[in-house]
Specification:
single chain; about 425 residues; alpha+beta
Amino acid sequence: MLRAALFALLACCLAPAFADQRADAQRQLEAARKDVDELQKLLGNLQQEKSGVQKQLQGTEREMGTLQKQIDTLEQQLKDGESEIQRLDEEKKKLQSQRAEQQQLIALQVRAAYQSGRQEYLKLLLNQQQPEQFSRNLTYHDYLSRARSEQLAAFNDTLEQLHAVEAELATQHSLLAGQQVELQTRREALEQVRGEHREALAKLNSELGDGDRKLKARQQEQAELAGVLKTIEETLARQAREAEEARRVAEARAKAAAEAEAQRRLAASGASDKPANRLLRDGPQVSSNSPAFGGPFAQARGQLPWPVDGRLLARFGAPRDDGRLKWDGVLIGASAGTRVRAIHGGRVVFADWLRGAGLLLIVDHGNGYLSLYGHNQSLLKAAGDLVKAGEAISTVGSSGGQDTPALYFAIRQQGQPSDPLRWCRAQG
């Protein structure tokens, strides 16, 4: 009985303590949940801000490309206007010279008429001593009168042409002045957008300063690019399956022969397929000034021109700046605004901004071969356009987060990256 009473008394004493501990634990749990909610909100805000910077970068780079195209168009219009003004000036000088000559002829005829007297017909009628001479003089008089009339008419026509040319010159000068004002406005707008682009790029670089986050961003960029390529390649593969079987067999034989020939050439020249294992500080020069290859892309190994004149900054297979990813193409350093040319004929299947690659253009060369051109300043072609080998398709820039102007150039063969050095002509 006593023991039971002691147990009951102990339970009564300990119950409030357990209740206090449970309440304290509950308060701690609620506080922890609030902290988690706050952290999730903060993380969400940071993610939204990062996404906003990406969208701002995308928008400014697209606007820079559009403004650059408008500036190029206006500069060409200014050149055409100056040529037209020069042509009109030359025509004006010719008309002024023609007017001076006509004035001299008219002055001579007026002086001769004045010297012969004011009553030429009356004198001819009174001097009729020889009828034959009278007839001849009358004919000469009519001829001179018609000549004077024709000279006066030609002089008036010259004056009208000169007035028209002078009016056209005034119009062209006014138009040229307006185009110059418009060009200056576009350039100022481009400079403003470039400033916004630099601010957005600096903010984005600061957000991606951490190595692990930068690695994840790069992996995501590559995944997005792979998704775009996969969609394009699936579409092209579906179209290829609809082609005739005989054509596919012939192309396969041609491809096998070309690969065998390329392997033989590579073996003979001692070329190595081993990719570089480091970034280049002073890479070799490459040139687009090479003859275009007119045959199928599959037979073009070692015979294609480079898309732009410049210097290789990164080779195929070289480690990227984070050291854990590799280049699936090459990086060619060139001046901003340099024209980028298609290495082979084909159709543009993608021309838009893509995260990590900036303004990107992809050309389908048939039979599963694609060429990619990224980090452009502006795109000169749109999806669906047919392009010829050597035709300008974009301009070199630094879109997509690049610090300096350079062209990202890659080749895909049946969805797999292929070293451009095996396709384009060796330099030197």
